[in-house]
Design a protein that fits this description.
- The complex is a heterodimer of chains A (901) and B (111).
- Chain A has 901 residues and is α+β, with helices and mostly antiparallel strands.
- Chain A has 27 helices and 23 strands.
- In chain A, a hairpin with a 6-residue loop joins strand 19 and strand 20 (689-696).
- In chain A, helix 18 packs across helix 25, helix 23 packs parallel to helix 26 and helix 25 runs antiparallel to helix 26 (864-890).
- Chain A starts with a helix and ends with a helix.
- Chain B is of the alpha+beta class and 111 residues long.
- In chain B, strands 1-3-2 form a three-stranded antiparallel β-sheet.
- Chain B starts with 10 loop residues before the first helix and ends in a 5-residue tail after the last helix.
- Chain B has helices at residues 11-22, 27-37, 46-59, 82-106; strands at residues 25-26, 62-68, 74-80.
- The chains are: A alpha+beta (901), B alpha+beta (111).
- Chains A and B meet through helix 1, helix 2, helix 3 and helix 4 of A and helix 2, helix 3 and strand 3 of B.
Chain lengths: 901, 111
């Protein structure tokens, strides 16, 4: 039909739909007019009024049928039937408010948890880059033996950009880093998140600045020539109060003047999941932000700090781009055999990058979603069970409907409408619950991101999550409504009409219902096992402790690069600072370290060749994590030196190079021998020779509860680092040291900012203990909710079974069965079902544990305790749920039971 | 002759549209006019008239309005819409072609 036709008849349909009473009345009036005219005509032709009336009615051939014919022409039956169904369903649900509430709550919990967890998985895996045509933006990675996702150096990026044909453009950017920002001079710097990007970054991504312009290609040509910056949308809003005149203004970044040339649009929050940069700066300005004066970012092929992404040109496949890049990597390996040895390259889609094997966050999120879906599944099974017990009470009503000619499909539709209404209410409440869960997570945001940088959790109940909730509601309506609807509309009229209590069935008929109970017990057992495993996994890592003394420590960071110190100035600053702070009041010990243990920043790594160790043929060197510390470190932190010595004041730039390694490192490369006095060479076989002077106790470095790893300490005097953390030990509250330290810093350089000043113990509690506990609470909560749902469902089904057998029980008791006999009869069934469910759930739990172990905990073995605790408690609780109805059954008075129906 | 089974299918629509095209009319008047115009040959039963009218109304070919009739009672008057007029023209043309063809076949001399 043509559109204008629809425009015309749509009001007619709407009128028929919403003004049904009026339409009906008009129809009656019209027909009455006709009849009256016909009667008048009959009387005029000499008939008696009675005869005339009969004739008129006869001519109409059945007035009511005609009305029905006319109603048919209105073509709204499907709608009016639906409205009728809804009305009927609401009325009949209103008769069982308790049941309705139980069902709605059950579904709401399942849907709410699933939509909340989906929003996490969505943010971490599925949500596309906030750029036009995000699908053809791919990530280019360098690959080695140790990492499948390595970055590229600047020279490598230029090679890729110039020598590949698969892309419309190839961009590069460094990770977001701290930048000292001053809007007006004279103020102390604030720490902001800056990101160095290639000149074509915005152009290739297709991001149009909301004001000003993007970078020009030539602004990224000459190192240090063009100090220009583009502001992130949030930064512009908060730091510049959305000033429309910001373009052209001068800002100070790390002591250098930059000109603001544009502001990124609201929609572009960056390509990273958690980081949302405040500032974008061309790569050519890298030296202003360099963390390492020893390497030349623009020339050193080994300085691999760049994330590289490309926009595939039309018609190019990822496979093609990947093989092209692999070929390029091969030729680079030939050309630069030393720095590119065994180095390959690959191209990955966004999805592949987001689900990379060495990242744990998304795996947690996926586990959460799987658990939530399991809860939803239990909820649906429950609701199906409860609806079944309702449908049973209506067997007779339905049989009558079928007998007087209702179509089976029509009845199924009616029953599905009912479950659809339940699911819509459940869905609405579920969205509220999901929103609450996400908000609850957000309330821990500051705990999880303890940084001055603009990082945040991008989890929201947004349109995508809402759509998923709606889809889940519809799905659960179908899941929990269909089985009862099919079952209760089985065209088995004779039995249905005989009595409401007819299904005294063969074993076959009860199969499905027993299966429901078993599935519930099994599913909730699996859920609980998973929850318990996670709780234990988290607790283990939290209890493992750090392996050093973490109380009475104050930490504060310095970054002289923010003031554009030269390496010599930096060295002098730290020397003076350490010297003076040690004599400050209240300071028992002080040390400078590049990173704190278990901190937010990853440790650097060092490549080395251990002397006298048989290197595997295919390896050039080994890699270990490392820290750079001064001579006070081990004493201040409280890490025991097991063999040899700590660093000394006499280890200077001029003296022979020395390192301290941890005991794991020592046992790794010199098993059974004393590592002190052994040597390692830096980078390769012919690298600088360094003596091992001490072996320190192995502690946890990156994660509490991590497996022991190799670790190397270098002395600050021989390995200068610009950004250092000052750690101070106090007798009492470490925060009392803040003021004295401030005084000392002022005497060295009044304009030097102190960053992230915190008590280490407080930091440790927040980051190492409290943050995982949030996740733990979440899973444990899910497990408990799952158990509650399962208990409700089991109770419902047992009660159903009992009510179904009321008559049978009455007869048994009339014939002399004792209460205990009845109790045993009913409970026997419950025990059998719960037992079967437990066995199935145990099998499911075991395979889930293997999955979780392989993904997260690396425990490898079966956690016996989990089952010793979970299985009996589940067994007892579920049997209680069966006991209550069983007890009720045993109290049935025979007289009453036999009168039943 | 109680059922309109003699009417070729779809013809009733055509007749109703044509009658209403002449002037707006209520259901009773339409049934009278139908009898009168076809000299009682085409009799549409009262029972099938109204569903047919309502169908045309829902298709958007005719539209209804409540007005006072000759005897001063409120009655539902149907009139042709623009869409209905187009439809009528098309159907009328179809009818002409069809009836001409059928006449042609019926009048063929038996060889």
């Amino acid at each position: 039909m043509r559109p204008q036709h629809w425009l015309y008849i749509l009001p007619l349909r709407l009128r028929s739909l919403f003004l049904r009473g009026k339409v009906e009345q008009e129809m009656n009036e019209e027909l009455q007019y006709h009849l009256d005219a016909k009667i008048a005509e009959g009387i005029a032709s000499g008939l008696s009024p009675r005869e005339a009336r009969h004739r008129a009615m006869r001519a109409m051939e059945g007035l009511e049928q005609r009305k029905e014919d006319i109603r048919d022409t209105l073509r709204i039956h499907w709608m009016t039937d639906f409205v009728d169904d809804v009305r009927y369903a609401i009325r009949s649900l209103g008769h069982a408010p308790g049941l309705t509430l139980l069902v709605v709550m059950t579904l709401a919990l399942g849907i709410g948890m699933t939509s909340a967890t989906f929003s996490m998985v969505d943010a971490q895996i599925f949500r596309p880059y906030p750029v036009p045509h995000p699908g053809n933006v791919v990530t280019l990675v360098s690959t080695t033996h140790d990492s499948s996702y390595d970055n590229f150096s600047y020279r490598e990026y230029r090679d890729i950009r110039d020598k590949t044909n698969s892309y419309d453009g190839v961009i590069a950017y460094k990770d977001m880093e701290a930048v000292g920002f001053i809007a007006e001079s004279a103020a102390t710097p604030k720490i902001k998140g800056g990101m160095l990007v290639s000149g074509n970054y915005f152009a290739v991504l297709g991001v149009e600045p909301r004001m000003g312009r993007g970078f020009r290609e030539d602004e990224d040509k000459v190192p240090g020539r063009d100090p220009v910056a583009i502001l992130g949308p949030e930064f512009w809003k908060h730091e510049f109060a959305s000033d429309p005149g910001v373009v052209g203004k001068t800002i100070h970044l790390n002591g250098t003047n930059f000109t603001v040339i544009g502001v990124a649009p609201e929609t572009f929050t960056g390509l990273q999941i958690f980081d949302h940069p405040d500032l974008y700066i061309p790569l050519a300005m890298a030296r202003t932000f360099s963390t390492n004066h020893a390497v030349d970012f623009f020339e050193d092929r080994e300085d691999r700090e760049l994330n590289v992404k490309g926009r595939l040109s039309a018609g190019t496949t990822v496979q093609h781009a990947s093989s092209e890049l692999a070929a390029l990597a091969k030729s680079l390996e030939n050309e630069y055999s030393k720095v590119n040895r065994d180095r390959g390259a690959a191209v990955h889609t966004q999805f592949e990058m987001r689900t990379r094997g060495d990242d744990q966050n998304w795996k947690f999120a996926v586990i959460f979603v799987v658990l939530s879906l399991a809860v939803l599944l239990v909820a649906c099974t429950n609701v199906a069970g409860l609806l079944l017990s309702r449908a049973r009470a209506r067997t007779r009503e339905i049989a009558i409907r079928l007998a007087i000619g209702a179509g089976r499909f029509r009845l199924i539709r009616l029953l599905l409408t009912e479950s659809m209404i339940l699911a819509s209410f459940g869905g609405m409440a579920g969205i509220a619950i999901g929103y609450g869960i996400v908000e609850w997570f957000h309330s821990y945001q500051s705990l999880i991101f303890m940084t001055d940088l603009p990082s945040s959790m991008p989890f929201h109940i947004d349109t995508r999550a809402l759509l998923v909730s709606v889809a889940l509601s519809a799905l659960s309506a179908f899941l929990c409504g269909l089985a009862p609807a099919l079952q209760s509309t089985k065209p088995d009229l004779t039995n249905g009409l005989k009595s409401a209590d007819v299904d005294m069935p063969g074993r076959k008929k009860l199969w499905g219902r027993n299966l429901l109970v078993v599935a519930q017990v099994a599913a909730s057992l699996m859920l609980l096992t998973a929850a318990f495993l996670m709780v234990r996994g988290f607790r283990d890592s939290a209890l493992a402790g750090a392996g050093f003394e973490k109380d009475h420590l104050l930490m504060t960071s310095f970054d002289p690069r923010l003031l554009q110190y030269s390496p010599a100035q930096t060295k002098q600053f730290y020397q003076l600072l350490a010297e003076r702070v040690r004599s400050a009041p209240g300071v028992q010990a002080a040390t400078l370290t590049q990173n704190i243990p278990l901190g937010l920043d990853g440790f650097d790594s060092v490549a080395f060749v251990p002397e006298g160790f048989q290197m595997p043929r295919e390896r050039e060197n080994f890699v270990s994590t490392m820290d750079t510390v001064d001579e006070g470190y081990f004493q201040t932190i409280g890490i025991p030196i097991l063999q040899g010595r700590s660093f000394l004041k006499s280890d200077t730039e001029e003296s022979p190079r020395v390192v301290v390694v941890n005991s794991h490192f020592a046992a790794h490369y010199w098993p059974g021998a004393n590592a002190v006095g052994q040597h390692i060479r830096l980078n390769s076989r012919d690298g600088a020779l360094i003596e091992i002077v001490g072996v320190a106790k192995t502690i946890a470095y990156q994660n509490a509860g991590e497996r022991p790893v190799d670790f190397v300490y270098m002395p600050l005097a021989q390995h200068s680092i610009p950004r250092m953390v000052l750690m101070l030990r106090s007798a009492g509250d470490p925060l009392q040291l803040v003021q004295p330290v401030k005084e000392v810093v002022r005497t060295v350089d009044a304009s030097m900012p102190m960053l992230d000043t915190r008590a280490y113990g407080e930091f440790y509690r927040n980051w190492v203990i409290e943050a995982p506990r949030v996740a733990m609470k979440f899973v444990a909560g899910m497990g408990v909710i799952g158990l509650l749902i399962a208990i409700a469902g089991l109770y419902g089904l047992m009660a159903y079974n009992v009510s179904r057998r009321t008559r049978e029980i009455g007869i048994r008791m009339a014939l002399g069965a004792a209460r205990s006999d009845v109790l045993r009869l009913v409970m026997g069934k419950g025990v059998l079902l719960v037992g079967t469910g437990t066995v199935v759930g145990l099998a499911m739990g075991l395979s889930l544990e293997q999955l979780m172990n392989s993904m997260l905990f690396n425990a490898g073995s079966v956690d016996i305790l989990a089952y010793v605790v979970v299985v009996p408690s589940l067994f007892i609780v579920t049997l209680l749920a069966a006991y209550v109805p069983a007890r009720r059954a045993s109290r049935i008075a025979p007289t009453q039971a036999l009168r039943y129906e | 002759m109680s059922k309109p089974s003699d009417l070729v299918q779809g013809t009733l629509d055509l007749l109703l549209l044509k009658i209403v095209a002449l002037q707006p009319m209520n259901g009773w008047a339409i049934s009278q006019r139908l009898k009168q115009m076809s000299s009682d040959v085409l009799q549409v039963s009262d029972g099938s008239l109204y569903p047919a009218l309502h169908k045309l109304e829902q298709e958007g070919w005719i539209t209804a309005e409540w007005k006072a009739s000759e005897n001063n009672r409120r009655a539902k008057f149907y009139s042709l819409t623009r869409l209905g007029r187009k439809h009528l023209e098309k159907e009328a043309a179809n009818w002409d072609r069809l009836s001409a063809a059928i006449s042609h076949v019926v009048r063929m001399e038996e060889a």
